Amino acid sequence: MKESSKGFWAAIIAYTLWGVFPVYWKFLKHVNSFEVVFHRIFWSFLFLNIVLFFGKRLKYTFLLLRNLKTLGYFLLSSMMIGINWFLYIWAVNTNKILDTSLGYYMAPIFNVLFARLLLNERMSKGRVIAFFFVLCGIGNMMLGLSYFPWVSIVLASTFSYYGFLRKKGALGSIEGLYVETFIMGIPSFLYLTYLMAIGKGAFGNLDIKTDMLLILSGPATAIPLLAFATAARRLRFITLGIIQYTAPTIAFLIGVFVYKESFSFKHLITFLFIWLAIGIYMIDSYFLIYNNHKS
């Protein structure tokens, strides 16, 4: 199989798994969202230890952390991804899957905004127009539905800022997640130990299905990331950028057709604004990359 084909199928696997994540977290609806997130962190850390150990990258990862500036970026990125994970799981289990889908549709366009605000990068006309349509979508929800989509905005902004910090952190996706789970792992372990000590934790107190789902939340977090890392090394940025919309599209379909979340004509207008923004963003990205190659 050609390298590009391997990358394509790895990307499809990664984004499909991310897209169906709501179904996984729905199975843990009976467990407090904080506890689910702490289990996700703890079991991800253990699983990634195994992956990096057998990949002979564990020592290398720790050597890079001698740089205090790099460590500082990962302290911040840990906070961002922790907030993002908690809000995502909470939203899924409070029937807000469509809000999560909307948030991850908006995330790439929020990336452009952060690049402008934090790096002073110039926004092309196409991206300014795309951001305008995002604002139209948000405005439609506020005026048409009397509802401020704060879940979508917080998910988009934390994920975008997380991506910005990870670029500055100078570690690969797997190594970076390992460092983040290592940083968050200590408070997670202490909290889970406390819950077990007072007999209020879900783990070991409910049923074997719940225990297994909590344990497997680690591999469920790491496996799509491993697939994504494979794809990122083999695919062009524009191709990966197009495939990334697989995840929120699957989540959107699951929210509407599987869990029957409310989806009125006014909701459709908001999503049409966002989809139009994405279309403009993708076309603009293509021409920017094409022009850079020509020059």
Model description:
Helix 3 packs across helix 9, helix 3 packs across helix 10 and helix 5 packs antiparallel against helix 8. This protein is globular. It contains 13 helices and no strands. The longest helix is centred in the C-terminal third of the chain and has 30 residues. It has 295 residues and is mainly alpha-helical.
Describe what is shown at a glance.
With 295 residues, this protein is mainly α. The protein has helices at residues 3-19, 21-26, 33-54, 58-64, 68-92, 97-119, 125-144, 150-169, 173-197, 208-234, 237-243, 246-258, 265-294.
Tally the beta strands. 0
Could you report the average pLDDT, rounded to the nearest whole number? 85
Number of helices, counting only DSSP H or I runs of 4 residues or more: 13
Q: Indicate the overall shape.
A: globular
Determine Rg (CA atoms, Å): 20 Å
Distance between the termini: 32 Å
- Estimated helix fraction: over 70%
The major pleated sheet works out as: none
The low-pLDDT segments are none
Topology overview:
Layout: H1 3-19, H2 21-26, H3 33-54, H4 58-64, H5 68-92, H6 97-119, H7 125-144, H8 150-169, H9 173-197, H10 208-234, H11 237-243, H12 246-258, H13 265-294
Helix pairs in contact: 1-10, 1-12, 3-5, 3-9, 3-10, 5-8, 5-9, 6-7, 6-8, 6-12, 6-13, 7-13
Features:
mainly alpha; 13 helices; 295 residues; 0% strand
